[in-house]
Every structure is written in structure tokens, then in C-alpha cells.
Records
---
Amino acid sequence: MTALVAAGVTKRFGGLTALAAVSLDVQPGEVHGLIGPNGSGKTTLLNMLCGYYPVDEGAVRIGEEDLSRASVQRRAAVGIARTFQKPRLLPTQTVLENAMLGGWRDTRTGFLAAAFSMPRVRAEQRELRDRAQAVLEGLGLGYALKHRAQLLDHAESRFLEIGRALVLRPRFVLLDEPAGGLTGAEIERLGIVIRTLRDCGIGVLLVEHHTEFVFGICDRVTTLNLGRMIRHGTPHEVRHDPEVIRVYLGS
Amino acid sequence: MSGTSLRPMAGSVGVLVALATLPWWAGDQYQIHLAALIAAWWILVAGLNLVVGFGGQLSIGHVGLLAIGAYAFAILAGRHEWSPWIALAASGGLGGMCGLLLGLPSLRLPGFYFAMATMAFALIVAELVLALGDLTGGGVGLSVPGFPEPFESPAGHYLLMLGIATMITWCAWNVARFPWGRALVAIRDNPVAAESVGVPVFRMKLAVFVASGVTAGLAGALFASLQSYITPDTFVFELGLFFFVCIIIGGRGSIAGPLAGTAILTALPELVAPLAKLGTLFYGLLLLAVVLLVPEGIGRLFQVILERVRPRETASPVLEPDAARLAAAIRRQERP
């Protein structure tokens, strides 16, 4: 089993140390929660796993493969997918097309092959459309395939972003506050989706403020504060840790 | 093929038949010339549209690439008496090569600075054309040969350009509807999301920019032989803005819109011939009207009206994930 590993990663922005030697691993088929107060470095860590920020010290690996210097695109190619705090969709494109974008790395045809509509291009397009549609139907977005993304409500946008990440055929999905702005009922449905990913063997990193949701769904939880890891363990251990209660949960 | 996609296809075929028979029903030679001019501009705009309308890269300097194609054709086919077909291909190739040389350093620049770089390129080409008088004829210009029979007559030349324009339109449409088009729109609307799914942003920008250089070079060669004489005054900087405006008025992310924009803007000064002096005024008014009233372009105007007229679905379906189906969908696409 190959895990996604951050090994002692450090990130500095000028004089500010956003992350200090933080280690974390996400196993396949596990939901790993990442919590902490605002500014504790959660999203910074996620961005370093995805390659948006280079690591100053430490390493990012999948199994034995060192990804510390790999581009964002390369990390997508080895199966790291993500969603964003504020959904980043293509507003003028349809829901189906947005999801199909996730399958970009499976399209092997070049510009000229596309321009002259070679049979291989059409076959790829069909295959991609079929599996994007299947994913969207599984997510409950089957009714919206032809809607333009700018017409979606907030929950639909969040689910569509997860759909796009899934069409990438990911080994790991990093979710940046997926429950943000969702209603209680919608968060329950999000839980169904995340559990399904886990059951399919995908490793999920869940950055989230909604602590009840995190403790309810995660197999392990890591807590950050001021760029340092303060507690790591099962939801039960973390939620009863006095330090976590003091800096984040409150009593 | 579904019924919904048959209708636009039938429409396209109808328009094409009408255009192909134009020499037999046109009122006079001038209308054929005008149609040929629209075809030349559209060949350039079709390529530029992938860069501007889809990729969101604001190039206003394609007139420089057009001039390079035009002069290359005039020099190779005219002075050196190459076969016009080989000279045409060489003009396209040279346009693509210059696109590569221009795109390599400039496509990494953020939007506004990229636009300035393309503008500078157009100005440099204009100066070089004047400075290299031995090659380009300087301010006097060059005469340009036509194509051999059956493309020698105005009607034949028009049909040749229509054929090339049709093929380029088909290629652009293919690029737009396959994953390339989606990735370009992603680069335009959300480059961070594009990267996150693995789209090689710079490489794709460069590829379509080179392609737009090829079409600009071809358009330059065809335009030059249509005019039969070119001077530096033919390739004023405003022409570069004109191509850009065709796309903005037509609408970003569409093929039909910029095609309509090119046709309307090319024909407009001629249609209001009594007001020829005010031709530029009409550009201005049209641009202002589009930007203020339908910023998505005339290509979307029709769709916007439809969306207004058509009643919205009232019952909002509930977002209800189905774990079993989702798991099946994920497992199905698992890598071997």
C-alpha cells in the first residue's frame, strides 16, 4: 500500500514560518482529517501536497516516489486531485464539460489529431464523456449535466468539483473545506460521498472547520496550530486532548 | 447522431452551399471580392479565436503575422517565381515559426503585458517592412501574383479561399469541442483549476499561438494575392485591433460568433457606403453596444434571448448522491 506522505515539511513566507516540520500521511482507503484554527497552516499544507508551493525543507512522497520538486501537473498525473475552498469551475461550460476537464491527463492526442478529428480523438471523447456522466450521476448531479456551471447553487458547485477530481482517476483526493456553506442535510450527503471514496480505496485528506463532521467521518485526525502539529490520532484521542481543546475546540 | 445536433449541421451545409454558389447569384464582382476578403480575414480570425476567445490570451498584434505571410508570398511567388501553392504553404509555415518565436518569450507574461508584447511585435514588423526596402519594396510595395487556373478569375480565387476557410473552420471547431477546447477555456477562466487537473498551461498556449501564426500566414498570402498589390499601408496597426474586435463582438468561446463578427465588421463599411467616412464610427458604436449590452458577444445574444423566453424549470431537483452508483462509477474507471 502506497501512502501520500508529507515528511517534516517546512514553509516560510518571508520571515513567517507557515509550517514547521509537519509530518502527515494519508493511506489509501482512509479519511484523514486536518483541523486547526484559522492561519494554522492547513491550506498551506494542502497546497504543498498538490505542488502549488515548493517545500523549503522536508519532502512530499507517494510511496517511494519523491514529489517534492514535481509540478502541479505532474502530481495530478500520479493521482493527486483536489478541490478548492471556493469552488473553481468554468462558469460558461456545462456541468458535464466541467467534470470532463478532470480527465485531461487521459487524453493522449495532440493538437493536430484533435484539429482533424481523428477517430482516436472521438473515441477518447466518448469514453471520457461516459465515465464523467457516470460519476456525476453517482454524485446526484445527473439532472444537471447540461446546465452551465454558473447556474449551479453552492452545494452543486462543491459536488461538481468533487466530480471533476474523481474523473481524474485519483489515488488521493484533497478536500479543502468541502462542508463550508453547506446545510446540515447537504453535509450528510457529502459524508455519503466521502465514505464512498474511502470504500473505493481512495485516500482522502479532509481540511475542515466543521469538527463534528470531521470527528464523525475520519479514521485519523491531525491538528495544527501556528504551523506546528499539536496532536495526531484517532478522532476520540484528538477530541479529548487538552491541548486541542485549549487552542481550537474550546470546552 | 442525435436529432438536436443534426439541425445546426443542416444549417451549416445550407450556408456553405449558398456561399459556394455565390459567384452565380452575386449582384456584381465587388460582392465576390468582399466575400473573398471576409474569407481571408476569417482564416486569420479563426486561428486567433483559439488564442483570444478560447485561451483568453489578448493578442492585438496578429497584423504583424499577417504582413509576414503576405510579404513572404509576394516575394516567393512573385520575385522568385515559386509555385503559388508552395509559396502559400511557406507563408503559413513562416507565420507559424514567427508565432513560435513571438510566443516563446511573451506567453508567460500576464495578460496586459502579453498584449503589449504582441503590439510591439506588430510595430516592429511594420518598421522592418519599410526598412528592408530591397526585399519588400519599401514604401512603394510589391505586386503579387494570383493562383493558376481554375483559381485565376475572381470567382475562382474566391472559391479557393472559401475552401480553405471552410477547412480551417472545421479544424477550429474540432479543437474547440474536444478536450483541447475545454482545457483552453480552463486556462482562460481558471488557470489554477486547469493546473490542478494536469493541463500544461504554457505548452497549450504556445501550441494554439503557433497554430494562429499559421492561419495568419495563410491569410496574409491569400489576402495579398487577392489584392494583387501590397504596400506597408495595407498592414496598419488598426487592422490588428480589428481582428481582436471581431472576436470580442462575436463572443468569447464560440466559433459562430466571431465568424459573424468578422463578416459583419468587414461588410459594414461597404454596406453603409454613403457614410463611408463614418465607417469607423460604426465600429465604435457597435463595439460599445456589444460591450455594454451583451458583453458575451452577439454569438450568445440568441442564446440569451432563448433563456429569457423559455420558462425555467420550477421544481428544483434535490442533490442526492447514490453511494452504490458512485462506487461503481469510480471502480469502473480505476487504472489497471
---
Amino acid sequence: MTGAITSRALALLFWITAAVIYLPIGVMAVFSFSAARYQILPIPAYTTEWYMRVFTDGQYSAGFLNSVLLAGAVSLAATLIGFACAYSLVNARFPGKTAFTLLVLAPLAVPLLLVGIALRIWTTMLGLQPSLPLAGVGQVLYVLPLAVLNLRNRIAQLPKSHEEAAWALGASRLRAIVDVILPACRASLLATFILCFTFAFDEFVIAYFLTNFSVTLPIKIWTTLVTGFDPTINALGTMVFAFSLMLGVTAQWLLMRKDR
Amino acid sequence: MSRPPVANLWHGILPALVLMAGFFLLPILYTLGLSLTAEGTSGLTLANYRTFAAEATLTDALLRSLILALSVVTIATLLAWPMAWYLAFCVTERRRVPLLFVLVAPFWTSFTIRAFSWQMVLADSGIVGAGLRNLIGSDVSLGFLYSLPASIFGLTLFGIMLITLMIYSSMVTIDRRLIEANAVLGGSSWTAFREVVLPLALPGWIIGTALTFIVAFGDYAVPTLLGGGLQPVLAQVMLSVLKGTYDLPMAATLASVLVIVILLCVAPLLLLVRGTRLQS
């Protein structure tokens, strides 16, 4: 339906764009092995020193640990809250359903900066001290739309008859959810958890506004970047990129596999 | 439909409702309300907004944010339509998913790290500068990093990914027989695009564009790392007010201006989506 020449031109456009998107990540990966403190070309010598430093510098490892714990708790909470919410959205009728759906999806369409500032002003007014758990609450609402969308799609696909069979055999509504719906959503639940983890792990704005002294990895990276350059960031950035890519690919693979 | 053994199980929404009301809706409404108060006066006042309108650094920042977001949306749109067309109509079904992965994967990683990695490419001492130096044989000063165009460039890449993805999602649902019928009847690809694909893929473009506008208008990381601090956008000013002078009503006012401009720009687009849905 498209001429061969047009098709080739479009392919060229696609690959040039892709190359531009990947270029800086490739450059960062190459410089992460450069022995020079600053980015100079040609690269004088190659080293893995910066990678070593990521693991030996206590601030990076503390930030990494904080980020993993926080993102883990956030994703678990978002997956559970999202599952309950998605189940009711598919199976229940209640007034204001459309308005509620819009409210849950709204964080997708609001700048994160606004969420961060509003939460900071609000919690200051309530007299709550900025802390890691508080940042976690903010991050849950940031990833909740993803969880609800993923799980709602999956629950809507399930044949109603399985749940009805469980009811007919005397299972309570909750029992049917635990024994029939949850197992059928296993792959989606895992994918949702991983996807939420990927976004929560990299989330910077909400964590920046709602913590004072606890440092997550993105906050550590940010303060290092704006206060002066440290080549360790190249190594760290390369690793974070590989880590996020791995998680994202796994989550998408799980989501697509269950479709068959 | 058989009857559920227990009444309508709507209670599942309660945790989400409490969270969204207590930590999203109320904070934002409170922030909008706070912008209408000022120290020393009781009751509601527009004083903060008058200060905003009178302060050239603030209105300049707003203007820069607008230029940034509109340029990003325009350039990304021009590139996203052909890219989405390529993915939807020029590649086999088996190759589509891997190609989508290629496009989307880099955006799973942190915004901050991606913005920072561009510094190494765009700086005068970066890859592009070094390449030009070898070519010309003398030092060149690009002056591109730490400027508004650098911010536009950084955010446009994000926009291309998002808008392409959204247009593509609408395009793949189009019944191919419509396009084939057009070809059989002697129509060119251009007529196929104008008469069939454009109207059906428009809702996808609108959603992608609206989301890109919101991100570009409210982003802080790219304008700081690529745009620099000398010509701040609204988001940068907002942060310095909040962390610097700690003037909460003023920070709330800047946040409210952000919300108002986004609503003004995005609402007409969303109405357009409803319009196209009604037509079809």
C-alpha cells in the first residue's frame, strides 16, 4: 500500500531517529570506561575504576539500597491497591464511576512537579515531617494508573463463567477472587509489579520534595550532577540504564505472553 | 447473568479513593487555594497573580516554557506521523513489536540520566564539538548546550517516542481493507492518508500531543541540565522559590499558573477528541 521508495525513506527516518535516541547512552557507556576524569577524546586509557567506585562509595550504595526498598514497597502497595480497584471497576456498579476512573488516571496527565509541590505544601500544612515513607505514599499514586490500567485489561478478559462456577459451588465472593481471579492474573500481577518498580526506582521529583535527609539513588545522581561532575556517574548511569531496560523488557514480555 | 452471592463489590475502590483524595486531589486544590492568599491580608486576594504579571523574570519564564512546549509538540508531531505510518503499514506484523521496543526502551530509564548523557554529546568539548574540530581543524564554539534550543531538542526526542506510539496504536486498529479499497479505486497513498488514516488516527495524535505538552511544559530536569540556569523556565523558577525563599503562596501561584495554562492548551484538544468520536 506504500511505494517501495517511500517505504525505504520511512525506514531510514525511523533508524536515524533511533540512532539519535541511543547515541548519548552509547557515548556515556564508552566514557564510563575512560581513565580520564573529564570527557576528552581520544580516550587515553581504559579502566573499570568508576564501576568499582560505585560499589565502594558508601553514598551510592546507601542510595541504591534506599531506592530498592522504597520502590519495592511502593510497587507492592500499588499492585495490591490497583488490583482491588481494577476488580471493582470491572465488576461493580457505583455512582460516579467515570469520575473516579478519571481521578485514578489523572496523575498521568499532571506534571510531576505539580504533584511534588502540592504534596510538599499539603504535608507541611498537616505538620508531617518529610521522610522516605511519605515520599513512598506520593510515589504510589504516581504509579497507580499503570497498575490499574494493566490489571483492569486483564480482569476484563477473564471469562465470567469461571468466577460464577466458584460461586455456584458455594465460594464466597472474596474466596472466588483469591482462588480463581488471582491465579489467572499471576503474570499480569508480576508484570505490573515490575513495571511499577521500574518507574518508582527512577522517580526523582516526588522523592526530592518529600524527603530531607534520606537519599535515594536518583536524588544522589541529581545532587552530584548539579554540584559538580564526577565520572562515577557515567558508570552508574550505564548500570541504571541496563537495569531499567532489563526490568522493562521482562515486564512487557510477561504482559504479552499472557495474551496468548 | 447469574447473581453474585454478595452485593455489588464496589469496596475495592476504597483504598485508591482514600489515597487519591487525601494525597492528590486535596493537596492540589489546597495549593490552588493557597495562591489566592497573601501574608498580612485576610480573605481571598489576587495579589500574588498581580505580582506575577508585574515581574518580568516570571512572565519571561512563562513565555519560555510556552515556546519550549509548543516547539517540542510541533517538531515531534512532524516526525511522529511518518514514523507511525512506517510501523503500522510498512513492516510485517512479526517485526512490529521488536521495532516498538527499540523506540520505547530508552525511555524506561531515568529522565535525569538521559538528559545528562546529552551533555557529553552537545557540550563544546563533547562528541559533536570534537567531530567538528577534526573536520575544520580549529576550535569551534557551538554554544548549543545551556540554551533553550538544547532543551527543545532533549524533550522533542521524548515527544517523538510518545506521539509515535499513540498514533501507531490508533493506526493498527484501522481496517486494512479500507486502504486497499482506496488503492483499487485508483487513490494514491496520499488520499489514503487524508481520507482514511488521518481521521481515524487523530484521537491517538491528540492524546500523545496533550501528554507531551504537559511533560514539556512542566519538566524541570531537561531545562536544568540542557537549558542551563541563566534563562529559566517556569518550573525552574518555581523550584527556586520553593527551596530558596520558601514563599509558599508564591510557589503555589506559579503552580496554579502552570495548571491554568495546561488546561487552556489541552482542553480544546480533548474536546476535539470527543468531536472526532462523535463523527465516527
